[in-house]
Amino acid sequence: MxxxxxxxxxxxxxxxxxxxxxxLEYRGYDSAGVAFARKDGFEVIRSAGKxxxxxxxxxxxxxxxxxxxxxxxxxxxxxxxTEQNAHxxxxxxxxxxxxxxxxxxxxxxxxxxxxxxGVTFRSETDTEVLVNLIAKGLDETKDMLQALSxxxxxxxGAYAIALQNIDEPDAxxxxxxxxxxxxxxxxxxxxxxxxxxxFLPYTRKVVFLEDGEMCKITASSWSVFQVRDxxxxxxxxxxxxxxxxxxxxxxxxxxMLKEIFEQPKVIRDCLAGRLxxxxxxxxxxxxxxxxxxxxxxxxxxxxxYHAGLWGMYLLxxxxxxxxxxxxxxxxxxxxxxxxxxxxxxxISQSGETxxxxxxxxxxxxxxxxxxxxxxxxxxxxxxxxxxxxxxxxGPEISVASTxxxxxxxxxxxxxxxxxxxxxxxxxxxxxxxxxRGLSELPGxxxxxxxxxxGKASQLARKYSEARSFLYLGRxxxxxxxxxxxxxxxxxxxxxxxxYAAGEMKHGPIALIDPNFPTxxxxxxxxxxxxxxxxxxxxxARAGKIIALTGPEAELAVDDPWRVPTPQSPLCSxxxxxxxxxxxxxxxxxxxxxxxxxxxxxKSVTVE
Length: 607
Ligand code: F6R
What we know:
Elements: E1 3-8, H1 13-23, E2 31-38, E3 41-48, H2 51-59, E4 68-74, E5 89-90, E6 96-104, H3 107-116, H4 126-141, H5 144-152, E7 157-165, E8 172-177, E9 182-185, E10 190-193, E11 205-208, E12 213-217, E13 222-226, E14 238-239, H6 255-261, H7 263-271, E15 275-276, E16 281-282, E17 295-300, H8 302-319, E18 323-327, H9 328-331, E19 342-348, H10 354-365, E20 369-374, H11 380-384, E21 387-390, H12 403-423, H13 428-462, E22 468-473, H14 477-492, E23 495-500, E24 518-522, H15 528-539, E25 545-549, E26 559-562, H16 572-589
Parallel strand pairs: 17-18, 17-19, 19-20, 20-21, 22-23, 22-24, 24-25, 25-26
Antiparallel strand pairs: 1-4, 1-10, 2-3, 2-4, 5-6, 6-7, 7-8, 8-12, 9-10, 9-11, 11-14, 12-13, 15-16
Helix pairs in contact: 3-4, 4-5, 6-16, 7-12, 7-13, 8-12, 8-14, 13-16, 14-16
């Protein structure tokens, strides 16, 4: 959701910024722009649509002289995704130029106040209001840090900003509150960006800015201050251990496909150091000092929420922990009954999702302990949690989350085993079977993925005219059904609903007809007879059925999709990529933008 990059160094800034913006494309955007200083003022070049449009405009200009500048991909919030609303924005006098990710909630009042003082605005954005407010601060204080502090103390909402002052063209100022911002420290060059891939080819040394902090970078210096009162802040420099390779397509047509095929590795990486095969034990040092919670509340959004629902079944069954799973945007506005005895498990791939973070903060205020289950090292969720279990999935670039969910399921399974063992509630045979099965899972999946893709592609072609799908599952397969439906709708734009199979007769069954196919998750397990009778209800209404099931199933449906089904819950790790690949093949066949679906952002840093 909006990508920011600022550069000060010894290289031509504009090509480097464009390249950085391309590596932030996964965040989702609908317009883009860059700015840099010339002798007579800022050059600001912007365009609606994809970065190619911006590059076309830049093609006709000589842009190689600037060695500092800022660039932005905008995901529209205030005002349509037009060139006029695209960032960067300058203040009315043209002294300052800004890029911004987030929402300034009190922008309307501030705009009215400044308009009354004679400031004219050229866009509909909250960002233009902010840059004018900072310019006003500069008039009053004559100092950039003071101006930033003065203005930012007056705004409400979320922001990550980077800005330049024409009087200091070799410096960039940046600040954050509730939107991600990270500094990259190179040799004779420094960066600020929304995410590390933006500058990863140049440096792995990073400093994570906290909420309420601002920084100044030049080619040879960097410093961090509190926004509140400009006191200097000592920051730790972290070294990132993944490389550019991990953030590239590696021969696959799309990042999504690459990430689906990475799942065997993701499972291996998530298990590494946590699964002691010889002793059939799980070690989770991250939470070894924590008691087993009396009650666990899982808070998350989207795919991470589905992973949480899946985890609930296991945590209740194996570890006997009462669990509720909450959509973060609902949780944050409820009259919550929470106290010190409660533990909140916040699940987030990016670790920057605004609603999940708000949930964490509210739960903390009520005294609950927070465990973060997240992928991005040093992210806000990681930093604000009392303990963090990293899912170790590596960078996920495609907007549609795939391998991250696989890693979340792996980590949740480990957690259920760990607490189940600690409480003594876990049957040892079951535990040994699960541990052995887990260790064999990556190999099994590696062997199976090509066949899954082949079948997914064949089914996608067969069903490509359907405008709606019903996904059905029971137990652990109910959250997977919801996830299958989410994947299909977000990348192929085909409407889909994920339902508990037993709930179908309470409403959705009315929709069934020959043009409304059902995608069933029907492993041969305890619930199989129940799912089978649900499918008969569909068939009685001439509904077509694809059913993911085990090799031994005798299911008389239109398209049985027989796959190896290791003992539950491990079967989910085969069903999940099958669902992902069906959505992928459908979207690709229909010619959709698989990695950057319309209207979606990778990391949803606003409400
Ligand atoms: C779906 C998807 C989203 C995210 C959701 C939460 O494919 O990617 O539904 O799962 O926005 O994001 P994180 O996990 O980063 O908090």
